[in-house]
Amino acid sequence: MKLFWAFVKKEFFHIFRDKQTLLILFGLPVALILIFGYVISNEIKDVQIAIFDQSKDATTQKITNKILSSGYFILNMDIDNANEIEAVFRKGKVREVIIFEPDFANNLEKNGTANIQIIADASDANTANLVVNYTKAIIYDYLKELNVNKKQPLQIEPQVRMIYNEELKGSYMFVPGTMALILMLVSAIMTSISIAREKELGTMEVLLVSPLKPVLIILGKVTPYVALSFINTITIILLGYFVFGVPVKGSVALLIGECMLFILMALSLGILISTVSKTQETAMFVSMFTLLLPTILLSGFIFPVENMPDILQWLSHIVPPKYFIIIIKNIMLKGTGMLFVWKETLVLFGMMVFFILLSVRKFKIRLE
Amino acid sequence: MKQTKNIIEVKNLVKKFGRFVANDNLNFEVKKGEIFGFLGANGAGKTTAIKILCGLWRPTSGEINVAGYDVYKQTNEIKKHIGYMSQKFSMYEDLTIKENFRFYGGIYGLSSLQIKKKTKELLQRLGLEESQNKLLNAIPLGWKQKLAFSVAIMHEPKIVFLDEPTGGVDPITRRQFWDMIYETANSGITVFVTTHYMDEAEYCDRVSIMVDGKIEALDTPEKLKKDFSAESMNDVFLKLARK
After folding, report:
1. Which residues does A45 contact at the CB level (< 8 Å), separation at least 6?
2. Mean pLDDT over residues B165-192, rounded?
3. Alpha carbon of A219: minimum distance to chain B alpha carbons (Å)
4. If one looks up domain A47-163 in CATH, what number appears?
């Protein structure tokens, strides 16, 4: 055990003395989260909308004016017929259609409540969400002005409908996706590089000649990265929550448990890569092509898997982050428990065991 | 150097990689406290033999005993009692001298007290006490090699394996390095050294020369020169290689 800690301590020296490593370990996750976060949820401006005003009274006119003068929206066209809605969206320019019910002002005055329907094109889920929220905010703002000095507050109920992508796939995706990316990067890539470095420098030989057991060498190399990955996980969740308002609806303990499983899986993958690569450069390239690119392209992080050609869909099944992202999305966004993610958890666990067994085998062959 | 006790005994060592025979029936002994030169051209099978003696690789067949332990069953015991320094510089550049000593002492299971004592002693010998908090990458190559050697004998092994320890080092440092080797041998540690420099071969107590996986000659440098009626070890080597 003492040997082990001597080793872990040395590993921390390596990490903390290398500015580049430090930057990758701690700077990159924060940068990635912020970049992805802001790129995806940036401000909206000049969004084209259409308005279907079935009431055409003073109130609807006022609301319309307020929306159009906000600076966020531009009126593309007025619609007179419900059939046109679909056609307007099809043309692709209009992102949102606002529909006032007939007798809007009357309803508001007599019943104290009136309905507005907001339909948004959710094929770009994030923009759709933003556009709808902006519209709602403007309507509520108008309502607030209206309700000053009123005993019985009036109500306007915006009913939102997303078309083309009802579940809003893609929104909030960046936190689970970035998490997968960063954990892959730190756990798998950094470990594989750091083990390959020992080989390249010749220190691995000295370590192997020493009485340290090979298992201990690997564990010693990997332990600091487990710790650092864990810190990164927490950082990402906190950043997501406080900066971008991404909720954690499910159990935090389960979330952290799943993250640990993914970290261990990624580490075993990193070890496997290091057993087949002799230099840091090889380790880096192998990691890039087998880990980083698939994580970005095939995991469903940025591009929905459902829209890919069959062969890529099939390939995506062997990309571990895919399962991780499904799990995290379920726990964070939908608040589901183990009952709904046990299959994916099992897949990740199986992959981890597989990679560990494979690297042990590779390691032994090298020693024979 | 008159001890007759063998610290390494190798009988019929064979190592094959598929069809390729890297070590073809090697037989030799190394006596305790001697400086044993292990020569041969690149690819002659030296490194393979050293890896087997260090317990890193399994031989295909043969009886091999290192420091009284069997290489098949007791590799862990062997590892505890040998030191190793490779041709590649093998300390951590981003650690200080002191931290390198601490780490290597640590993985050989020395206590903190032992490590402190040994570090002081070895650095004193090199006159590097002042620099012990410097990072390794700020130290010239010649000194690094000496430090690597010091680290390799820090845990007082019975045998130290030096795999081309003086590669790329200037003549003066090489000379100093050999002074260290002599001192080490005098303190009772057996030195098993491979080298490309034939003048260094003259410094060894006994020398073996490998050609194509076989040991073609093994004796004291004087005897070898006489047998091959050669002026220097260099001539001996060339005559053997051309044979």
Report:
1. A71, A72
2. 90
3. 14
4. 3.40.1710.10
